[in-house]
Amino acid sequence: MSNRDIIVIGGSAGATAPLKQILGHLPADLPAAVFVVLHIPAQGIGILSTVASSAGPLPVRQAENGMKIEPGHVYLGAPDHHLLLAEDRIFLGRGPRENMVRPAIDALFRSAALHHGPRVIGVLLSGLLSDGAAGLNAIKRCGGMAVVQDPADAISDEMPRRAMEATTIDLCVPGAGMGDVLSDLVREKAGAVLPIPPEIRLEVEIAAGDRIGSDNLSAMADPVALTCPACGGVMSEIKEARPLRFRCQVGHAYTADALAREQEGRVDEALRVALRIIEERAELVHRMASDGRRSGRLAVAEMYEARAAEYREYADMIRRVVLQSLEPAVGKRET
Hints:
Blueprint: E1 6-11, H1 16-25, E2 33-38, H2 47-52, E3 60-62, E4 74-76, E5 82-85, E6 90-93, H3 105-116, E7 120-124, H4 133-141, E8 145-149, H5 158-166, E9 171-173, H6 175-185, H7 198-208, H8 214-220, E10 221-227, E11 234-238, E12 245-248, E13 253-255, H9 256-294, H10 298-326
Parallel strand pairs: 1-2, 1-7, 2-4, 3-4, 7-8, 8-9
Antiparallel strand pairs: 5-6, 10-11, 11-12, 12-13
Helix pairs in contact: 1-6, 3-4, 3-7, 4-5, 9-10
């Protein structure tokens, strides 16, 4: 029986520091391959060189399509492609984004669970929202191990906390000790192989770029009265998902909190558009009232003045709503 020879790591805001600590403590003879997806901009900040400089004796490579998986190597997700694992090779998928990102942590975790089952150790680091929680749950359902950074040790503790709510976590470890823990875990024998849930296989195929199809979607999700922020299509709620998740007919996927964040921005934008239209309407009616007075049509002028006052009241009300909607965003960090 094989050892636990596949380590998949995901993180976003605040994940770079613990990732450096992990890679810096992994030994040169590590009998496992390591795969990393970070939900932070991969271009313009030198993430590859940053990770490579911290990996100690392990070589770090940006993943390429068809690349052979080798133990003792670290593979980093490529920009704008899902990092997917098969039996002995890496594949880059151009399927729809998940939580507005590609590569997505969940896509990597699911593909590892699908093809490597109990040999997988899933690691979730610091980050915002629920990214990675569904993928870590998939790893557990396929017999793998789930490890999270201790939320008290994380700069952004939402991702590890949401994962702990979504599935049974095997270990909760501070970033500084994670590398040593993983070095021990990979030398243990993997557990028993479990049946693969069909929805996990389907979601991996979607990430690879396969057409989702309404029949496939209906098998794992129920339509709801929500529209996709990315394409405007009808969304469906994934059945018995942990955490609560949605997919549209194109395949864009969202956890509930990520969908709420996208909707929040669109509500704010809609309110500002409405405010502009009403203010323009008030200005137009005011000018029509002034024109009526100049031409001696006092009754018409009074009617337009009343309407202008009414529109200004509407505008003031919307303006207050817009200002109130901005208050919770103070100090909010982006992934």
